[in-house]
Write a structure and sequence with these properties.
- This protein has about 180 residues and is of the alpha/beta class.
- The chain has one domain: Alpha/beta knot, CATH 3.40.1280.
- The chain has helices at about 15-30, 40-55, 65-75, 90-100, 120-125, 140-150; strands at about 5, 35, 60, 80-90, 110, 125-130, 165, 175.
- Strands 3-2-1-5-4-6 form a six-stranded parallel beta sheet. A two-stranded antiparallel ribbon has the order 7-8.
- The model has no long low-confidence stretch (mean pLDDT about 95).
- Bound molecules: S-adenosylmethionine.
- S-adenosylmethionine (SAM) binds near residues 112, 114, 130, 131 and 135.
């Protein structure tokens, strides 16, 4: 599946940590990249540093224009999934989204907000999806959505060309430091 996350409404300083976590969750749970509709090189650097050390292919692009991204995404045949507590319940729509996403010609753009999301996003999205109809967190909403979309398979994915790799263990910590290839 091709999945990219678009973060809207990022406020410099105030949202730094949450947006960094949006990037880390996106990468760890199977998305290929993060588009940030604000300029924040600090956030970009933090996520890119983690991606370099822990492997896999993950891009971060800051300063994007969200309206153009949505338009171009849909023009190219992709679908837009906007996470909002006002949307349709995840269980109601996840099967049709997964069916669309399993076709390689249909990349998925997942939109998460910070402050108030413009109504145009609700109108443009192919699905407005609620991870329950209660207010909570964009990080939690994103994680649950990505996990349901991929039926949990992303949790066992391998990240290629990692400098660091964890050896899973029930007790203690084991990390392998890889040699440069
Ligand atoms: N008040 C804002 C609005 O009117 O859009 C939302 C603020 S909320 C803290 C930030 C983001 O978290 C939302 O834009 C949405 O992406 C996500 N979010 C929060 N609760 C959610 C839920 N129950 N389902 C899906 N997404 C949720």
């Amino acid at each position: 599946m091709e999945i990219v996350v678009l973060r809207l409404g990022h406020r410099l300083e105030r949202d730094k940590r949450v947006t960094t976590h949006i990037g880390l969750v996106s990468r760890a749970l199977g998305a290929q990249g993060l588009l940030l509709a604000a300029e924040d090189k600090g956030v970009e650097r933090s996520i890119t540093r983690v991606a370099k050390r822990w492997g896999g292919e993950f891009f971060v692009k800051t300063g994007v224009r969200w309206r153009d991204e949505l338009r171009n995404w849909q023009k190219a045949g992709g679908k837009v999934c906007h996470l909002t507590m006002y949307g349709a319940n995840l269980h109601e729509v996840i099967d049709e989204i997964r069916e669309a996403a399993e076709d390689v010609r249909t990349p998925i753009l997942v939109v998460v907000g910070a402050e108030k999301v413009p109504f145009e996003v609700y109108e443009t999205a192919d699905w407005n999806i609620a991870i329950g109809n209660q207010p909570h967190s964009e990080i939690a909403a994103l994680a649950i959505f990505l996990d349901h979309l991929q039926r949990g398979q992303e949790l066992t994915a391998r990240f290629e060309h990692a400098e660091l790799e964890i050896v899973p263990s029930r007790r203690g910590k084991e990390v392998v430091v890889k040699e440069e290839e």
